[in-house]
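Quick one: structure for this chain?
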Amino acid sequence: MGKGLALAAGGLFIVLFTAISILNWTFFSNLTGKTIGTVTGIFEKHSSKNNIRYPVVKFTASDGKTYSYTSTVSNDFIYVYSPGDAIKVKYNKKNPVEADTDSIKPVIYLMGFAIFGVGILAAGIKCIMDSRVTAD
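Got it. Here's what it folds into:
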């Protein structure tokens, strides 16, 4: 039972990683415009365990108009933003309201998620292979 569970959990992580990666790639591949924005505030998301802080960013796109968005990249031990800070922005030139912080952080999280899933999957396969060797 445990072997199959490890295999299923690893497979689930890989499927989730693939789905999230496709969604992220689809969104971020449209963000071809680059500029520098300014953090205008911090949006706090409260939960029972912690508070997550996301910078609110204002930027001027190539069309000359000013846009604002709340970043998906939160303030944490890697990035700490305060109002007035300059921040790299990627945006969709055809629809500048589609924007986010130009950061490697989401990629790092996805890679960690994938490595964890592959590790669990490998452990499940090893358990099944070991049980076949001892059964013979």
